[in-house]
Every structure is written in structure tokens, then in C-alpha cells.
């Protein structure tokens, strides 16, 4: 628990730092984009110069994407826990996930229809699944299968979380797997084995931080050369999920 606290404090500090830097960096990028765009549009500049400007613009846009990711990470440090049915959040992601994974990767959904609400942040659950799917895709360059499943589990005597019922979101792949060091360090902020510009090393750290904030945790099972399954545990709640349909004042159809 001490270690988890340290982790979340570290994550919060990193979040603040990152958000400040990302904002400043965005201003710099906006200036760069503006300048390159100007050159690119000048018909009196030689073709070669306009091509350089084009390349500069593309690089700046990649930079902007990265800062957007960093800002999303910093924002994720502020969350709102509400009772929700995890399957209802994950099910609509199917098409987006299928598109993200591409034609080489099979996508299997095994969502437990048992509607047990958990206390979680809907946007964070979406982010978790999406980030895990992207990691899985990166681990399966030659294709494979991604399985997204949800299960209700009873946990007791766990070193990190209270005894009780949890919904487990498991995202499994048939990809490269992790070596021992990677498995041990995967959830550390900024730990990445990916090249600069591709990985930030914040994905799993963020997922772990979110799960801990919700009173849950994350487990990773991985075998080198066989694949990886990341399991996110979220505590169940007795609270009823807000039904957006019922939240609307009922309309009297008969008009009486
Ligand atoms: P990033 O993806 O930006 O590197 P993460 O925190 O999401 O950051 O992941 C950290 C590292 O853990 C990755 O660089 C990779 O080495 C390893 N990893 C994460 N997910 C998987 C996976 N599904 N299969 C194999 N390795 C993974």
C-alpha cells in the first residue's frame, strides 16, 4: 500500500509537470506550424523550399499529437467516479477497436452480460481499453488475436485491495510478450521499450493509477513469445448506475 501511495503521488506530480510542459510546448508548436504554413503557401518560393516547409509542418503536427497525448494523461489525474456498467462502456468501442487493430488482428469480445455496477470513470475505462488495445497491436506486428473480456470476481486477502467483488476487465493478446525486466517495470511512468516518438511509457502507468484511484488494481500476465494479458480490477458497488433515459423528465404522450 505504501508503494502504491508513492506511485500515485509520483504520478500526480508527473501529471502536473507534464500538463504545464505540454501547454508551453503547444504554444511553441503553434508558432512553428504558423511559420511553415506561411512558407508553404507562398507561390513565389521555389518548390524545394515549399517541400521543406511541408515536411516541417508534418513534424510539428506529430509533435502536437504527442502533446495532446500528454495533456490527456495529465487530465486523467482528475477523475469522477460514478456507478456504471463496464460492459455498456466497452461494447460500443468494438468498431473503433477493430479499426485501430487493422485487418491482421482478430478482435474477440467476451463481455459478461451480468450487469454489476462498478465505481469508475467512464472516460477512463474507455481510455484503458483503447490504450491496452494499442499496446497489444504494437506487440502483434504479424497479426494475432485480441480478446477483451469482463468477469465478476470475488477477491480476498489481496495485498493491495479490499476484500469484495470486483469486475475484471482483461485485455489479452497473442503477441511478443514481455521479458522479465519489462514485466517488472511496465507500469512505471516513462518506462518504455518503444522508440522515441512512438512510446511515452505512460500508458500502463496511467491505467494503474486510474485503477488504484478507483480502489482497484492491475495485474499483468505475460509470456515471452506467447502473449500478454492485462487485467484491470475495479470494485463493484451497491449504488445504482444513473440511467440517462430515466434522468430525462418523462413526457406525457397522451398530452393529458
Ligand atoms: P508505451 O506503450 O508508450 O511504451 P506503456 O506504459 O503502455 O507505454 O508500456 C510500457 C512497456 O510495456 C512497453 O514499451 C512495452 O515494452 C511493454 N508492453 C506493454 N503492453 C504490452 C503488450 N501487450 N505486449 C508486450 N509488451 C507490452
Comma- or semicolon-separated keywords:
single chain, two-stranded antiparallel sheet, 7 strands, 47% helix, globular, binds adenosine-5'-diphosphate
Annotate the secondary structure layout.
Layout: H1 2-41, H2 47-75, E1 82-85, H3 86-90, H4 94-101, E2 105-111, E3 117-120, H5 122-139, E4 144-155, E5 164-173, H6 180-185, H7 203-213, E6 217-223, E7 227-235, H8 244-247
Parallel strand pairs: 2-4
Antiparallel strand pairs: 1-3, 4-5, 5-7, 6-7
Helix pairs in contact: 1-2, 1-7, 5-7
The chain binds adenosine-5'-diphosphate.
Residues 135-136, 139, 173, 175-178, 182, 186, 191-194, 199-205, 228 line the site of adenosine-5'-diphosphate (ADP).
Domain Histidine kinase: 20-238
Organism: Sphingobium xenophagum
Keywords: Coiled coil, Kinase, Membrane, Phosphoprotein, Transferase, Transmembrane, Transmembrane helix
Give a short synopsis of this structure:
47% of the residues lie in helices and 21% in strands.
